[in-house]
Structure formats: structure tokens, C-alpha cells
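haha ok so turns out i had the wrong file open the whole time. this is the CORRECT one, sorry everyone. sequence first:
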Amino acid sequence: MPNLAKCPNQWDAKTRECKVIIETPKGRRNKFGYNSEYGAFDLKFLLPHGLVFPFDFGFIPSTLAPDGDPLDIMILMEEPAHVGCLVDIRVIGVIEAQQVEDGKKEANHRLIGVARQSYAHGEVQSLDEVPEYILDQVEEFFRSYNKLRGKKFHISGRQGPQRAAALVAQAMAASRKPPKRPK
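then structure:
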């Protein structure tokens, strides 16, 4: 089985469209993560009662974020996909944030995208077109989610599609660099 994290994402910089692999579906308390060694999805942890993923959460293959994983992305669409589902999306913005764990700060931005097949969100081009209350709730989810894991999640702002596309381009370039060898 191929390593899904290294599959082509078919990034189109002009339309900001690509393919995403869903790790955790909307409405789930189970947090899944892709395990490249097994080519399967691990159950990472269980969220408490009352806390669920507000939208599908996944990653953009053939990218490398500063945390060493593929870029994370939350996808707006009406119905949940399933774990491992390949979804065509458009990147519409980013929630920029720093994650703090054991005193160590690390950028951990959350890209936001829309499923191209979505009736309600498929034509959305920018975060500016998403109702404020939805973005507020997504941000609060990420704060609560990280707090449960002993981390602080400090949001520095929301940026539009150009900034998000730049982050995708940077992460794609980082994924093409050879890995650093230990000294």
C-alpha cells in the first residue's frame, strides 16, 4: 500500500484546489491519525462527551508542516466523509496559531478548506464568506482540543486564501527536501 502522506495532492495554485485525506470525520469523538508505517489509521485518543470535531479534519498529502507532519486542514461540508476518504477541496484561509507544550512554542496553523462537492460551501472562495459564528466555534474547538492534551493554543489571527496558499506552497517545498541526517 502506498504511503498516503506522500501521494500527489494535485495542487493547483491558481484555483487553490487540491486533494485532502480525511483523518477524523465531522461529529466524531475519536481522533484518528495516519500511520505511514502500517498504511492505516490509528486511534490517537477519545474526546470527552460533548466535544466532537465540528467538520472533517485531515491532511494535504505531499506537504510537510513545521511540526513534522503533513499540513492539517479542516474541511467545511454538510455531511461527514469517512476515515481515509480522498476529498477534492479549495483552500479558503487559515487560522494562524501557536501551540505551547512544556514551554515550547511551535507554529501550528489550521488551514480551512471547502469540499468542492458541497452544496452549502462549494462556491466559497475566502474565509470572509464563512459566517463569523462558525469560525468562532472552530477556534474554540481547537482551544479546547489542545487544552485536553495539555497544550495551549494561542490564535494570532485569521488570514485569507493567499496566505493559506503560501503555506501550502512552503509545505510542499519542505516535503521535497531530503530529510536531515543526525550529526
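Strands lie at 17-24, 30-35, 40-46, 56-60, 71-76, 86-101, 104-107, 110-115, 152-159.
again sry for the mixup
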